[in-house]
Amino acid sequence: MLEVLIIKSVLAAIVLFAVLNLAGFHTWVERKQSALIQDRIGANRATIFGFKMLGMFHGIADVIKMFTKEDIVPQGADRTLHALAPFFSVFFALVTFAAIPFGDRLVLGDRVIELQVADINAALLYVFAMLSLGVYGVILGGFASHNNFAILGGLRATAQMISYEIALGVAIIGVVMVYRTMDLSELVRAQGQLVGGWLPLWGIVTQPVAFFVFLTAALAETKRLPFDLPEGESEIVGYFVEYSGMKFGMFFLADFLETIVVASLATTLFFGGWQVPYLLPDGFHFPWGAVLAVPNWLYALLGVASFSIKGLTFCFIFMQLRWTLPRFRYDQLMNLGWKGLFPIAVGNVVVTAVVLVLLGDAPR
Amino acid sequence: MTERSATRSVKIVRRPELTFWEKLYVPQILCGLRITTTHFFRNLLIHTAHRLGLLKLLRAGVTIQYPDELRPLMSRYRSRHRLTVREDGTPRCVGCMLCETVCPARCITIVPGEHPDPNVEKYPVRFDIDLGVCVYCGYCVEVCPEDAIRMDTGILDLSAYSREAMRLDIHELMDPKLRKPLDTCKLDFPHLCAQHEGGMKGSWKSAQ
Question: Which of A152, A241, A274, A292 could form a disulfide with A307 if both were Cys (CB 3.0 to 4.6 A apart)?
Fold first, then answer.
């Protein structure tokens, strides 16, 4: 029992370390990537002992600034909720990672370790529940600020997140129907089969429409551009107007964390998670018949690397999208969610069901 | 009234309708992504090459990192003034007062003195330009018969904590590298010297 506890703690520590660092790293990526896209240079002035490290220290400077800034709580605000809101945002974004498998089984001696913090058999439901609870941070942030603009911003953000959650959930149903499991590690394992002996049966192959709906809805869910109406802080008064210092920083952190959650989810559901094409637990089995044996530790490592690379690619794509697209108007946003994505997602479920029945694949 | 409005021709510009292809969003998003991604990877490549010392002629960004890197100025750009110098280190100015007279902002103050060379007659004992008043019109440069004043130092970063510090005297005008406060005076012809409590300093003997 104690050993299991230690293993789980280590796994959780690894995940938290990786995810929080990646979120911090995102500030640098955001600055530099936008600079490169717009033919600029980007932040490069923060130095430590004369080293600039391509401006990477700006993230550290940000954190120092956030922590040393005055933390203002407006008069008449609900102090408890005002302090709780950013914690909710970050907490629900962080606990989501528990259910995401970032590698296959690692065999150490006679012990088999699942590279997943919490092995939940309805992990998909858990992930979406936690993502949905993130809305509490937003609405409480608006409500507790004792500011009409903040309340309106919070309501706007909540309406957006709830609307897109429906499209998100319905898009996922197609994936669940195809792989017939809600357990994320089983779902990833099911994506390891090959179609016609060469094409990995990843979610993008079986559910391309669901993938696009999921990606769009997920971007809206994480309040990233082009759906960043809640957070267009320089143009629209959002739910965190009354936040300063590290509380504001935590909303920002939650934003980056949610981006990583969505990137991980997209990887897990549609791009085979930790699957490396043609890699089975005992080695590579190429479609032309060649076999390359791989030791177990390397197999696990390759899985983790595969998951990381796919996830980082998604982070890159999200960032690229953020700096490409202009912001939606609010009515366009609602139209897209309810009249565009939702019907498409429902249609996808129907088509998937019909195809599954025709293939004689449907569970009886 | 009604006739006028009836005959007035009005051109109605309708908002262009989106084509079906554009309404699909996704192709247009991909087009946008292509542009940004091209820029991203092009600049990434050039930045990396710069780190390795390659492709120095290609610029990766339009940013000019100002204090480290100066923008190229036009050769006729009017920047801070300077007084040109003879071979013996004395100013070419002959104290004719033309620039002081023509100056629309009246920022030039000249006190002429007698020059030992009878062909020169006069020289400035004192030559001040108040940059806080100067309008950079360049008339002083155009009017000078001796090519004694020019505005070609390329110095743009004029700033000071007091109005007094914006006043350039003959020391700074003859040597554009000098900045206030001056600690030493290297001029050896007679001049009104701030280093000397505003009194006269130097002599022609030491200049020769």
Answer: A274
What angle (nearest 5°) sits at the alpha carbon of residue A53, between those of residues A47 and A59?
70
- Give the residue from A36, A229, A120, A347 showing the smallest Cα distance to A44: A36
For chain B, list residues with pLDDT below 50. Answer: 1
Tokens, residue A325: 């697209």
Nearest partner of A254 among A167, A145, A164, A136, judged by Cα: A136
- How high is the ipTM of this complex? 0.86
Of A120-129, A225-234, A353-362, give the lowest mean pLDDT range: A225-234
φ and ψ of B131, to 5 deg = -70, -20
* Nearest beta carbon to residue A323 from set B29, B36, B61: B36
Q: Do B36 and A39 touch (CB under 8 A)?
A: no
**Burial class of residue B17 in the structure, from the number of CB atoms within 10 Å of its CB (0-12 exposed, 13-18 middle, 19+ buried):** exposed
Minimal CA separation from A40 to chain B, in Å: 5
Q: Do B39 and A38 touch (CB under 8 A)?
A: yes
Give the C-alpha separation, A225 to A231, whole Å: 9
Residue B63 with chain A: CB contacts under 8 Å: 40-41
B61–A320: do the CB atoms touch at under 8 Å? no
Cis peptide before A226 (omega within 30 of 0): yes
| Each residue's pLDDT tens digit, B124-150 | 999 999 999 999 999 999 999 999 999
- pLDDT tens-digit series, residues A43-92: 888 888 888 888 889 888 988 999 999 988 999 888 999 999 999 999 99
Whole-angstrom distance, CA of residue A363 vs CA of residue B200: 107
Closest Cα in chain B, distance from residue A146 (Å): 39
The angle, 0 to 180 degrees and rounded to 10, between the axes of the packed helices A245-270 and A148-179 is 20
User: Is A35 within 8 Å of B47 when comparing Cβ atoms?
Assistant: no
Contact yes or no for A321 and B29 at CB 8 A: yes
In one-letter notation, the amino acid at residue B118 is P
CB neighbours of A21 closer than 8 A, spacing ≥ 6? none
Which of A308, A147, A315 minimizes the C-alpha distance to A241? A147
Q: Is A38 in the B-facing interface, judged by CB distances under 8 Å?
A: yes
- SS3 at position A51: strand
Inter-chain residue contact B60 with A41, CB threshold 8 Å? yes
CB B129 within 8 A of CB B139: no
Q: Which of B40, B60, B61 sits opposite A320 (nearest CB)?
A: B40
Which residue of chain B is at minimal alpha-carbon distance from A37? Answer: B40
Q: pTM for the full model?
A: 0.83
Interface check A301 vs B, CB under 8 A? no
| Of A142, A75, A81, A88, residue with least CA distance to A250 | A88
Of A33, A35, A325, the CB nearest to B29: A325
- Shortest CA distance to A344 belongs to which of A164, A204, A215, A210? A210
CA distance A335 to chain B (A): 13
- Using a CB–CB cutoff of 8 Å, tell me whether A45 touches chain B: no
Condensed to tens digits (0 to 9), the pLDDT of residues A8-34 reads 899 999 999 999 999 989 999 999 999
Q: How do the domains of chain A map onto residue ranges? A: 2-358
Three-class DSSP category at A338: helix
